[in-house]
Structure formats: C-alpha cells, structure tokens
Amino acid sequence: MPQATFTLTMPESIWIGDVSQSYPDAVFRVLAAMPEESSGSGLVEIHHEGVAEILATIDAEEAVSSTEVMYQDEEQALLQFETETPVLLFAMQESGIPLQTPFEIVDGTVSWEITASQERLADLVDQFESFGIPFQVDRLQQQVDSAQLLTENQFSLVETALEAGYYDTPRDCTLVALAEDLDMAPSTVSETLHRAEERLIKEVMGSESAAESPANAG
C-alpha cells in the first residue's frame, strides 16, 4: 500500500494557521481532533514562552466558537477547542482517510505521513486543492509487507541473509559462506533469494505479476 509524506502550509483562513504564523516560534501539538456535522473539536498542546498571549489570540479568533484551558503554566498550555471551520478535518473526512494524531504545527507548517490506497491519496490531494490548502509531496513509496508477500522459507532466508550482512555494501557475507552456515547448496540459496528479490522488486514497482500467491513460488 502506498505511503506518502505531505508538507502542508496552513492558510491564514484556517484559525490555527493564522495563530501559528503569528507566533512562528510556538509549537502547536494537536493531540486529538474530531469532526462533527458542521464543526469540529480538538485538543492542542501549545509550547511558547508567551503562551498566555497566544491563548488570548485564539479566544479572539472568530472561527473558534469555544475554548477551555485544561492546563497552563508560563511556557505551555493544554487547550480544548471547538471551531466552526475545521477545514483539515473536513478534507480528511471527505477523502476517507482518518486524521492521525498527534502532529505538530510550527509557523503554519505541518508534516503528515499517510498510508492509504492510491485512490484515497488522490482524493486527499483533490480535497487539499478544493479547500485551498497549499501542500507538497515530500516522499511517495510503496509499503511492502514482506512477511505476507514471501513464502515462509523465502522470508526466513532473506532475513538470515540480511542479518549476516549479505546485502551490505560492501558485503560482509558471501553467497558461499551463507550457504555453508545454512548447510544448503549455494545454487539453492541463490535461486531462493532470487525468487524472493524478484517478488519484492515487482511489488515495489507495481508489477501485476507480484499479485500471484507466494505459495506458487519456490
């Protein structure tokens, strides 16, 4: 399943983006967030020397309908809030991807690592664009569950080869040495590793042939 890392820039039209950019040194750590029909609520931990000033600024935000300070000292506060414009929550909800917490917002910027189908990731991108949320994709890769993709024999052999340093650069273990340690013929080790590597590479590259059952492979 694809795994993507997004960097989002919260527009000033989103209250937390406005406040965060007004206090670029502050860290807003969102611990929980929940969408409702036309609003949203959440729990955010704020770290900044002038946290009292930040709390006053949040209270003055029109989009924030209510706040409750759960904890406060000179440099941090725990705030529960409700907002009528939970744009991020709506974007995630419409794409069908759950919002993973906690995450940090600093100077209006947040980085998210999301694992979802290609279709849902495409929907999320559409939602970001629809809500006017600037973003960039920092990384996109195919997440492979090798334990399910390979046979038990293949997985065990690849794991042993990895631990022995066979895949290090330069190699700490040769094919012959690996075969001797396992009391196997070098040709058998080579063929089994090759089949396992083929399946892993085809899965990562999106080859349809990797969809075959691992039970049919050697």
Give structural notes.
With 218 residues, the chain is α+β, with helices and mostly antiparallel strands. It has two domains: 2-142, no CATH class; 146-216, Arc Repressor Mutant, subunit A (Orthogonal Bundle). The chain is 38% helix and 28% strand. It has eight helices and eight strands. The protein has helices at residues 15-22, 51-59, 87-95, 118-130, 146-149, 152-164, 175-182, 186-204; strands spanning 2-9, 27-35, 40-47, 64-72, 76-83, 103-106, 109-115, 135-142. An eight-stranded antiparallel beta sheet has the order 4-5-3-2-6-7-1-8. Helix 3 runs antiparallel to helix 4 (118-130), helix 6 (152-164) crosses helix 8 and helix 7 (175-182) crosses helix 8 (186-204). The model is unreliable at 207-218 (pLDDT under 50).
Short description:
This protein is an alpha+beta fold and 218 residues long. The protein has two domains: 2-142, no CATH class; 146-216, Arc Repressor Mutant, subunit A (Orthogonal Bundle). It is built from eight helices and eight strands, in the order βαββαββαββαβαααα.
Features:
alpha+beta, Arc Repressor Mutant, subunit A, eight-stranded antiparallel beta sheet, 8 helices, elongated
Instruction: Outline the biggest β-sheet.
Output: 8 strands, antiparallel
Kindly give the count of domains.
2
Low-confidence stretches: 207-218
Percentage of residues assigned to helices: 25-40%
* Continuous helix count: 8
List how many beta strands DSSP finds.
8
What is the chain-wise order of helices and strands? EHEEHEEHEEHEHHHH
What is the overall pLDDT average?
85
State Rg.
24 Å
Give the strand order of the largest sheet, numbering strands 1, 2, ... along the chain.
Answer: 4-5-3-2-6-7-1-8
Calculate the terminal CA-CA distance, rounded to whole Å: 24 Å
